[in-house]
């Protein structure tokens, strides 16, 4: 088996998550430090062992609570001495800093890098009396809003509704197919004590929910929350004596080939997820048939459809046929999907929650939501609209 772009040198050795919930009333930094310290402890390391730090998206975001903490805030709070660090938004989605950390340890720039993502949007919005509109945040509109803002289409649901409608028109995808994704997420969330929404959902519940931006209803949209996740990326030859079985970063998919927009690609039904998928499989001898579990971004249910196709789990235009039998994605099915409840029911930890869940499942610590067969190869994918990133983890 080809060991991918890092030749087996980059591994995950620890994962941590803070308290997760709606309007917790805690600061983003507080949540971040909780997750980071848990990840370090989970790896069997001390703060003094950590010589690198990375995060997404970094400072400068106008949306209150979208970035819970900056890396220098965390460095200062923990007293980290960093040989390498980075935070950026123009990267391969929320796993971009993880990929960059893999590069750093593979090149010998660091031994152990802690990577975090934190949000506290629900508390920040409550404190601010609501979320600010991008139209009134000052300055020029970013280019990706050029063709939507004049028409009042200012939410992700608006932007995803257009490619979803087009995909339905071209390939026969139905709302019931999207409903299977949402119901699967809720079923898994019912087994996750940290999930935001755990009560059962039926197809009637899904179809009866209020429409947000046709064809996307309330249950097609993820739930904002407060929380933080972190992982430790280590250089393999620095892991001797650590308690965890290192998880090899077998491959990564950081590619982007077209415009980073929601609506100006040559085919709006593909989006950046397809670019990521191409580069993921170019970098490994593994194939989609080798994957035991998928943790795929579900900021909106249609993004999961795009990822199922982009990573080769379904042929082009055949996702609906795949979802006709929802047992395909069930916890005990051939491709368990979003086992924590994803963002649709587990809470919008914004990407890194999927990587955390992959680690937990591969270490056999999923509790009531643990897959019957502990996965050996897991695909993780985040983003998927204008930017995207994917990873392939292996315990082999």
Automatic annotation (TrEMBL):
Thiolase C-terminal domain span: 261-384
Record's protein name: Thiolase family protein
MF-aspect GO terms: acyltransferase activity, transferring groups other than amino-acyl groups
InterPro entries: Thiolase, Thiolase-like, Thiolase_C_2
Pfam hit, one: Thiolase_C_1
Gene3D superfamilies: 3.40.47.10
Signal peptide: none
Source organism, top-level taxon: Bacteria
């Amino acid at each position: 088996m080809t060991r991918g772009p890092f030749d087996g040198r980059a591994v995950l050795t620890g994962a941590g998550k803070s308290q997760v919930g709606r309007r917790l009333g805690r600061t983003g930094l507080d949540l971040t430090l909780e997750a980071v310290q848990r990840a370090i402890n989970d790896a069997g390391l001390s703060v003094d062992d950590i010589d690198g730090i990375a995060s997404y998206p970094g400072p400068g975001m106008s949306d209150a609570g979208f970035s819970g903490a900056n890396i220098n805030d965390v460095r200062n709070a923990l007293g980290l001495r960093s040989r390498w660090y980075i935070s950026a938004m123009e990267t391969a989605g929320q796993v971009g800093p993880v990929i960059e950390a893999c590069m750093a340890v593979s090149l010998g720039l660091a031994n152990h890098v802690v990577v975090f993502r934190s949000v506290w949007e629900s508390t920040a919005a409550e404190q601010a009396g609501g979320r600010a509109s991008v139209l009134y945040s000052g300055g020029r509109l970013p280019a990706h809003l050029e063709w939507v803002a004049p028409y009042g289409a200012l939410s992700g649901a608006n932007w995803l509704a257009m490619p979803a409608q087009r995909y339905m028109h071209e390939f026969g995808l139905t709302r019931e197919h999207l409903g299977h994704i949402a119901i699967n997420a809720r079923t898994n969330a019912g087994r996750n004590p940290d999930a935001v929404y755990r009560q059962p959902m039926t197809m009637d519940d899904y179809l009866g929910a209020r429409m947000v931006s046709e064809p996307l209803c309330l249950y097609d949209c993820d739930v904002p929350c407060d929380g933080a996740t972190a992982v430790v990326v280590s250089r393999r030859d620095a892991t001797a004596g650590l308690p965890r079985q290192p998880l090899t970063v077998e491959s990564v998919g950081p590619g982007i080939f077209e415009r980073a927009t929601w609506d100006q690609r040559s085919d709006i039904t593909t989006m950046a997820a397809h670019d990521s998928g191409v580069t993921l499989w170019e970098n490994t001898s593994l194939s989609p048939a080798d994957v035991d579990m998928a943790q795929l971004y579900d900021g909106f249910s249609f993004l999961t459809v795009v990822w199922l196709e982009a990573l080769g789990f379904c042929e082009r235009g055949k996702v609906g046929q795949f979802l006709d039998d929802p047992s395909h994605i069930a916890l005990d099915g051939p491709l368990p999907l979003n086992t924590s409840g994803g963002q649709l029911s587990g809470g919008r930890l914004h990407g890194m929650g999927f990587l955390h869940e992959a680690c937990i499942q591969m270490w056999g610590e999923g509790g009531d939501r643990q897959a019957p067969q502990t996965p050996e190869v897991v695909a993780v994918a985040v983003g998927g609209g204008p930017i995207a990133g994917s990873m392939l983890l292996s315990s082999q």
